[in-house]
Amino acid sequence: MLKDIVSTGTRATREGFGAGLLELGRQNPKVVGLTADLMESLQMQHFQKEFPERFFQCGIAEANMMGIAAGLATAGMIPYTGTFANFSTGRVYDQIRQSIAYSHKNVKICASHAGLTLGEDGATHQILEDLGLMRMLPGMVVINPCDFNQTKAATIAIAEHDGPVYLRFGRPSWPIFTPENQKFRIGKALQLASGKDVSIFATGHLVWTSIEAAKELAAQGVSCEVINIHTIKPLDEEAILDSVSKTRAVVVAEEHQRNGGLGDAIANLLVHRLPVPMEYVGVKDSFGESGKPVELLDKYGLSKKDVLWAVKDVLDRK
Amino acid sequence: MCVFAAGRNVSVDGKSEQEDQSTRSLMADISKLTELCAQVRRDIVRMVFNVQSGHPGGSLGCTEFFVALYGNVLKHSAKPFRMEGRNQDLFFLSNGHISPVWYSVLARSGYFPVSELNTFRKINSRLQGHPATHEGLPGVRVASGSLGQGMSVAIGAALSKRLNDDRRWVFCLTGDGELEEGQCWEAIMFAAHHKVDNLIVTVDWNGQQIDGPTDQVMSLGNLPAKWKAFGWDVLILEKGNDLEAVIAMLRRAKRRCGKGKPVVILMKTEMGYGVDFMQGTHKWHGKAPNQEQFDSAMKQLPETALGDF
């Protein structure tokens, strides 16, 4: 039930990554960590302290880090690279494409500070294109968990998948609302609230925003189905089609450009299988800027009121 | 299928361990490997002529290196080929465009049928224009071709060996023009900092790249001094097209490992070596010969007892 989904506290998703990596390190001796001078930003210091011999500081040299990760994977290790999302994708696209994705290397590309919620550092660091870049690569698994607990679980779970994974998370403290010690299943969408009027598919930080919007809409008599699409690729097509065949209206919410992200992935599915009115909550072909995370989400159309507006829009077009 | 030197250099049973230190059988090898060089050169030109595309220049220039490596230096296993290569030496080709020489040597080392060389660059082939793992070609561990990436991958594999207490070596070949890619210097810095001393990088120092001599396109400056300044143990091989010299240098490089520094061999070769009109010029970097040129090349590279593909 929607009203039962409450925040039990706030912590950054990157802290969930750090906690997950430490726990995983204790479980699996093949796991190694790499960073490009952003160890503490990625919260990898916990792993580094306990497993110094399995941790490699690469300096400010992301391209080399990706190649080294590919080599470690070739010879049987499970490398987790850690840097900002901007430097984990756009900066090293060709290295990922050739040495990791095309070569099917078991590398986990872990990317923090994604999207606008990086805040004050501004648009140079606020990548809003990374999901698109990564989901275009054949064979790449793309995951954007929604809170601390889910990021921790995802960090542990991706070691079990044999192949490249892009794991995206963020900088700010954010509400925690999914269970502790949950089992994370790649590609399995999670229905958070059942509804009949509209399906809201959300990923990352915008899952919580969508829950808050759905609660407000419920008070107004609109029944929203809220589904957490933590895995953007492979997309849980069955869960999406099941929901949409019931609600016949869709809103997709993500901290990303409208181009190329989760919205486009779902639109691509629905245009072939089940075309219905659909609205995006995402950045409209724009770079970000400096500011507080919440101010930026508001200015660039990623706030609760933008979800409310999008729902009203699709309901009008139904 | 033709497997040269079968069972002696291609070994997984540990017997070749002794042979690492031994030059006992080297002279017997040399005549076989010299013949192999001749056949590999013929393969290269025939492969590129067949599809009218590919990169003969660098391939011909590195023939002795590949034959020395696979025929005498590496402890490796063609069958079964194992991606992880635990307790074996690993080789990574960074300048992937010289795939013809690698494919020829891999096939003639037993990794896949020699007849498969016929499929080079054709549709549905495992022998892609640039080496790839995607089609499952035995012997290839990572895709290469987009330049500057192989050294990083080799370093990662060397770190993995260290973590697993695997005492074998990791080898990597890179072009000299390729060193213009910034990632190479990231890798060079990393390997010295982390004391990756189970790594032997060889630079194909032929002084040529697509648009002309490296001195004109982008001067590499004092290459030995640069590598030294970055903290590597630098070896210079003046005669990169002399088979015995290449074998001796690779063996020497192995002995220089384990001392806290990565080892680089700056190997002077002549692009296009073995075919007079291709030799010493950048013009045959990535060009196929026409019929007349092919006939001329074949006259210079007569068929050997190993036989054509």
Give a short synopsis of this structure.
The complex is a heterodimer of chains A (318) and B (309). Chain A is of the alpha/beta class and 318 residues long.
Layout of helices and strands, plus pairs?
The complex is a heterodimer of chains A (318) and B (309).
Chain A: E1 10-12, H1 13-27, E2 31-35, H2 45-50, E3 55-57, H3 62-74, E4 78-84, H4 85-88, H5 93-102, E5 108-112, H6 130-135, E6 141-143, H7 148-157, E7 165-168, E8 173-175, E9 190-193, E10 198-202, H8 206-219, E11 224-228, E12 231-233, H9 237-247, E13 250-257, H10 262-273, E14 278-283, H11 293-299, H12 304-317
Chain B: H1 16-20, H2 26-51, H3 56-61, H4 63-73, E1 90-93, H5 99-108, H6 150-163, E2 170-175, H7 182-193, E3 199-205, E4 208-209, E5 212-213, H8 214-217, H9 223-229, E6 233-237, H10 243-256, E7 263-268, H11 291-300
Parallel strand pairs in B: 1-2, 2-3, 3-7, 6-7
Antiparallel strand pairs in B: 4-5
Helix pairs in contact in B: 2-4, 2-5, 2-11, 4-5, 4-10, 6-7
Order of helices and strands of chain B: HHHHEHHEHEEEHHEHEH
The CATH class name of chain B reads Alpha Beta
- Would you tell me the structural class of the helices and strands of chain B? alpha/beta
* SSE class of chain A: alpha/beta
- CATH fold category name of the largest domain in chain A: Rossmann fold
Number of domains of chain B: 1
What strand order characterises the main sheet of chain B?
1-2-3-7-6
Low-confidence stretches of chain A: none
Strand line-up in the sheet with most strands of chain A: 3-2-4-5-7-6-12
Strand fraction band of chain A? 15-25%
Q: Roughly how many Å is the radius of gyration of chain A? A: 19 Å
Q: What portion of residues of chain B belong to β-strands?
A: 5-15%
What general form of chain A does the structure show? Answer: globular
Let me know the largest β-sheet of chain B. 5 strands, parallel
Net shape of chain B: globular
Q: How many separate helices of chain B?
A: 11
Query: Would you list the SSEs of chain A in sequence order as H and E?
Result: EHEHEHEHHEHEHEEEEHEEHEHEHH
CATH level-4 homologous superfamily of chain B: Thiamin diphosphate (ThDP)-binding fold, Pyr/PP domains
